[in-house]
Amino acid sequence: MNKKELTRFNSLYQQHINELILQGKSPRTVNMYSRTLRQLAEFFDCCPDHLSADQLKIFFLDVSKRLSWSHVKIDRNAIQHFYRHVLKRPWTWIDIVKPPKVQSLPDVLTSTEVANLISCTRRFDYQVFFLTSYSMGLRLGEVLALGVEDIDSTLMRVHVRGGKGNKDRFVSMPQATLLALRALWQTHHHPCLIFPGGKSPGNHQSRHTLDRGGLQKAIKLAAKNAGISKRVHIHCLRHSFATHLLEAGVNLRSIQTLLGHSSPVTTAKYTRMTEEVQQNSALMLNALVERLRITWRSRS
Is 50 a catalytic residue? Predict the structure, then answer.
């Protein structure tokens, strides 16, 4: 685009970000919506304030060929927000037919596979990360965000801050997990972070955490070394945690609270992975983690 158009786009782009922030959108939503606007401008090589409905259809056709339906929905919502709140124009609805929903189920690891997976992980900090994710059903980003002040050893729980939907929650923490977290912290003594990253984790001024890509590669390598043929990624640990609790007799409402699901419908999907048995037990969470037989790596 020419210099005049680029100047106009930059102004509208910043307005778009400002509107998202003022409406209380999460940083993740701001990033996704602003990325869509940049991609739209790059696709047509112009400021996207005068695009026709037909042009937008061409853009969505390209997105639908390359990415998932969830990306298509995000892009449509982002452009709709741009038209309504920045351009102050009526949004011409782009009729996109949703493809048939695939009722797929994620792979779930057994307790033995979880233990073998962690034991075959080559770095101690990664081992503790995977145990933390599994033993409390936390998402990857939620584990990375854990700070020293979030660990409550008196009430045996962690404070998950800014989870999905920007919601906080408390999650019960097993004794074995607390001991592993303490052992890890002794290796770096970072005043804020539980899982500091970077080339110099001993740098206490650094706010960098472990690399997401490195963690995903590590868990796939550990699964391979453990002889696990399932499609393993870090979120599998969360699915496995929920499934194992259900098998152990924990009721769906308790699991919903632990996982931070807004709707019980989301939690109910785990009933398709296992059979629910008895009611919840106060010692179930500790027993679940205590039975893991993990071979720990050197802490140095």
Answer: no
Confidence of residue 131 (pLDDT cuts 50, 70, 90): very high
C-beta of residue 240 within 8 angstroms of C-beta of residue 138: no
Active-site residue, selected from the candidate residues 16, 76, 81, 139: 139
Query: Is residue 208 flagged as an active site residue?
Result: no
Q: Does residue 13 have an active-site annotation?
A: no
Closest C-alpha to 41, from 72, 84, 12: 12
Catalytic annotation, pick one of 164, 169, 188, 297: 164
pLDDT tens, position by position, 21-67: 999 888 888 999 999 999 999 999 999 988 888 898 899 889 888 88
Q: What 8-state DSSP symbol labels residue 202? A: T
Q: Which fold has domain 111-290?
A: hpI Integrase; Chain A (1.10.443)
Active-site annotation holds for 81: no
Q: What is the pLDDT of residues 75-89, one digit of tens each?
A: 989 999 999 999 998
pTM score above 0.85: no
Encoded amino acid at 164, one letter: K
As a whole number of angstroms, the distance between CA 168 and CA 290 comes to: 27
73 is catalytic: no
